[in-house]
Amino acid sequence: MSDLDSIFATPDIIVMVLLAATPATLLGALVGGLRARDRGVLGALPFALLGAVAGFSVLIAGWWLYLTVSR
Fold first, then answer.
1. pLDDT given at position 71
2. Cα–Cα distance, 43 to 49 (Å, whole number)
3. Are 56 and 27 spatial neighbours (Cβ–Cβ below 8 Å)?
4. What is the dihedral of CA 23, 28, 30, 33, to 10 degrees?
5. How far apart (Å, rounded) are the C-alpha atoms in residues 57 and 64?
6. How far apart are CA 39 and CA 37, in angstroms?
7. pLDDT attached to residue 69
8. What whole-number distance in Å separates Cα of residue 39 and Cα of residue 19?
9. How would residue 57 be classed by pLDDT, with cut points 50, 70 and 90?
10. pLDDT tens across 32-49, in order?
11. What is the chain's mean pLDDT, rounded?
12. Percent with pLDDT over 70 in the chain
């Protein structure tokens, strides 16, 4: 077992990951929304959500690669 299991519960770790990924998610949403700004607010919303998911995914993939390669 890992030491993290004894210090933090699973929901605590999930909250920490989500908080750490907030900047990438917001940046992805901003880029997605700005790319579709000619569609209006409701038309740009799906692009903003897609950008947020992409930003979160890229950050998690980067963390995974960093932790896999550096250990």
1. 66
2. 11
3. no
4. -160
5. 10
6. 5
7. 87
8. 30
9. very high
10. 888 888 888 788 889 999
11. 85
12. 90
What is the spatial distance between Cα 33 and Cα 55, in angstroms, rounded to a whole number? Answer: 13
The residue extents of the domains of the chain are 3-69
- What are 29's two structure tokens? 């949403």
Q: How far apart are CA 20 and CA 44, in angstroms?
A: 25
Could you give the residue ranges of the DSSP H alpha helices within the chain? 3-7, 10-20, 22-35, 40-69
Which tokens go with 39? 């569609």
What predicted TM-score, i.e. pTM, was given to this entire model? 0.71
50, 25 Cβ separation under 8 angstroms: no
